[in-house]
Every structure is written in structure tokens, then in C-alpha cells.
Amino acid sequence: MNYEVLEVVIENNVALVTINRPPVNPLNSTVFKELSELFDVLEEDEQVAAIVLTGSGEKAFVAGADINEMNDLDIVGVNSMNKKSRAVFTKIENATKPVIAAINGIALGGGLELALACDLRISSEKAKFGFPEVGLGIIPGGGGTQRLQNIVGQGIAKELIYFGETFDAKRAEDLQLVNKVVAAEEVEGEAINWALKLTEKPSFALQMAKTSINAGSNVDLESGLTIENACFGSAFSTEDRKEGMAAFSEKRQPQYTGR
Q1: Could you read off the pLDDT of 220-234 as tens digits, one per residue?
Q2: Cα distance between residue 216 and residue 214, in whole Å
Q3: What own/partner pairs with CB < 8 Å and gap ≥ 24 does 146-152 have?
Q4: pLDDT the model gives residue 229
Q5: Which residues form a coiled coil (predicted)?
């Protein structure tokens, strides 16, 4: 497929997806539409085992929503845009394949919400983060009020959203918003390295681990344990489980097939 604002490169079972709206890659209805369509394609592509999502250039991952587009919308239009953003972020969050955000620069507002929808986040040491929405008379509308507090807790989430101040990569790492901070020139390469490591894992076991973590985070402990048990049983029934345990016993490298 040809995309207007996305660049897609698939190599070694890793899809590198770049949002290309220079200079700061703002989110608009076209980005949401194309991301939604692309993730449907990647979901069905058996040659893709992991996905890296980044922004073009060195300045920004995604510097938020396209304010120029939003400013011309009425309440019906804004609700429609929010519905689209929510749907695509949820699709990314629930993709059966691991998604890694390579945060190469500014990640503000909707850009940070997009990163939070990914499974893992590698950040440039030069990246800046923040939720500036309250200062614009709105609030985060793409899942930020919910996903943020799931990671940093309610008190810190309120601080970051209420004050809307930007913060650096070190604080993002301290808050566990990002998994790792590296030099700016290493962000994409490190994210791809992580993705390549994941392609070596049994894909269905990864899928079940992700399902158990994601679904379990929204329910009480007992319900979460029930979800975990079901996912464990599903993973245990696979050929890859048999191969993994056999390889462990035989002291050799496993040969996984995704079955």
C-alpha cells in the first residue's frame, strides 16, 4: 500500500514505521486513518513479528495533535477525531505483535499518548515529554489520563497533566515512562535491536503474555489471575512450547515456528 504520511520498511521480520509530517510530525485525521489501515495489514502479515514506530527527522517523535486542524472543528468534529485517535491507539496497544516506540525527539500531548499505547519505549537523551493540553483549555483525549496513571500512578499523572510542564528523558526514565534512554543517534538502531530480539521468541507466547498483562491491568487481582491462567494454558498447548522445553532439556537453541 502507498501512504501519504507514513513510511514503512520491513526487514528481518521487523516493520519500521515512520510518521513523516516534518518538521514535527503532528497527528491529524490522515495519520490516524493510515496508522489504522497499516496496523491491520501488519497484523495479518506473517513476515512481520515486531514493529518499531518512530517519527521522521531529529526534532520530534510526534509533537502532538495538529492544532490547525483541531481549531476549525466543532464539537461533533472533535468527538469524531477523538474517536479515531482512541480507536487507533487501542489497536496499537492490542496488536498481537510487540510494538516499540523509538522516541527520537519531542513527544507531547497526542504524541506521548501514542508512545504510551506502545509496549516498550526507547528514548533519545534529547527527547522532551509533556501533556500541555490543560494550558490550551482542553485535556488529553487519546487515552492519556488513563494510560499515564497506569504507569506512574494517579498523583504523578495529575501533576504532569495539571501543570503541563515539559520534562526531559531522565525524568521520563525515572517515572518508568520509557524503558531506556540512549544517545540521539542510537534510538532507532536500539529499538530495532530490541525488536530483532523479540522476533527470536515464540510469537504466540509473546501474544499471550501481552494479552495477560493488558487485560489483567484493568481488572481486580483474582480476575487477572484467571486471565493469566487461561493465557498460560493456551501457550502451553502450542508446538513452540514443546520445542522450547525440548531444546532446554537437550541444551540446544530452539527452532520456533509460531505454531
Answers
A1: 999 999 999 999 999
A2: 6
A3: 147/93, 147/113, 147/116, 147/117, 148/116, 150/217, 151/116, 151/175, 151/176, 151/177, 152/176, 152/177
A4: 97
A5: none
113: annotated active-site residue: yes
- Please say whether the beta carbons of 197 and 189 come within 8 A: no
CATH number of residue 90's parent domain: 3.90.226.10
Query: pTM for the complete prediction?
Result: 0.94
- Residue 124 and residue 228 in one domain: no
For the CA atoms of 78, 84, 86, 87, the dihedral, rounded to the nearest 10 degrees, stands at: 160
Considering the domain architecture, whether residues 83 and 188 belong to the same structural domain is answered as yes
Per-residue pLDDT of 132-141, as tens digits, reads 999 999 999 9
> The cell 486471565 sits on which residue?
227
Domain end: 160, 178, 199, which one? 199
Residues 126, 229 within the same domain: no
CA distance 45 to 145: 32
Residues 6+ away with beta carbon under 8 Å from 90: 117, 143
Residue 257 lies in a domain: no
Annotated catalytic, 58? no
Q: Would you call the peptide bond into 254 cis, given omega within 30 degrees of 0 as the criterion? A: no
Catalytic residue, chosen from 4, 58, 133, 173, is: 133
Model confidence over 161-185: pLDDT tens digits?
999 999 999 999 999 999 999 999 9
* Active-site annotation holder among 58, 69, 113, 186: 113
